[in-house]
Amino acid sequence: MRPSGRELSEMRAVSIETGVTKHAEGSCLIRMGDTHVLCTATLEDRVPPFIKGSGLGWVTAEYGMLPRSTTSRMRREAAVGKQGGRTVEIQRLIGRSLRAGVDRVALGERQITIDCDVIQADGGTRCASITGGWVALRLAVNKLMKAGDVISDPLISPVAAVSCGIYAGQPVLDLDYPEDSEAGVDGNFVLRGDGSLIEVQMSAEGTVFSRDQMGELLDLAQKGVSELVAAQAGATA
């Protein structure tokens, strides 16, 4: 029995509310159970120096957790004076995941920055950030298309992510914090809407796993991502 009472292949309740900020070109508040992340997209007519003049667009991301997104207060990284290694790793993951669903030629020489701010954390914050980040990106690109600033849709596929793991000896979908903290195997799966894999992060946290078990977790991830893609479509329709 999972602590939440969910079935092994059951996602947490997912909701995506769009248009939650006034100024961003795209925004949403994604809730995956008790994990809540605010995602905003900012359009800029510039690109990083390393691709300037190439005609290619760029999608990047920043990620952060608010001080009371967890059970005890965390210091703001700005107060410490630098980002932690976990933060840097997660925002790089978000950026390269979203770029996998973008035709950068069609986007043109402009940058879209996705900001992901964790309001409340209960496991799977990077997965929620990727999933909600794509919604914010979709909304920002819709504005570009409506204004006639791009000729064809630069988004070639939705991108979503979900965690899977082995908890109490069983493969489970969409780990919340009580499961994540005790899972024998923990994994994050990033996929495109067509089922193509973008990134898989898996590690043994207390027990090893077999190739068959990895296949079971991938099957669960594909099921979960298909549900998330449907939620994205509903939010951006």
Helix content: 25-40%
Q: Return residue spans where pLDDT drops below 50 for at least 5 consecutive residues.
A: none
Number of helices: 6
Give the biggest beta sheet: 5 strands, mixed
End-to-end C-alpha gap:
36 Å
Strand content: 25-35%
Radius of gyration based on Cα positions: 18 Å
Q: Order of SSEs, N→C?
A: EEEEHHHEHEEHEEH
Q: Tell me the total number of β-strands.
A: 9
Question: Based on helices, strands and strand pairing, what is the structural class?
Answer: alpha+beta
Shape: globular
Strand order of the largest sheet: 1-2-3-5-4
| Overall residue-averaged pLDDT value | 97
Write a structural description.
The chain has 237 residues and is of the alpha+beta class. It is built from six helices and nine strands. The strands form two sheets. The chain has a five-stranded mixed beta sheet. Strands 7-6-8-9 form a four-stranded antiparallel beta sheet, sandwiched between helices. α2 (85-99) packs across α4. 42% of the residues are buried. The model has no long low-confidence stretch (mean pLDDT 97).
Short description, anyone?
The protein is built from six helices and nine strands; from the N terminus they run E-E-E-E-H-H-H-E-H-E-E-H-E-E-H. It is α+β, with helices and mostly antiparallel strands and 237 residues long. It has a five-stranded mixed beta sheet. Strands 7-6-8-9 form a four-stranded antiparallel beta sheet, sandwiched between helices.
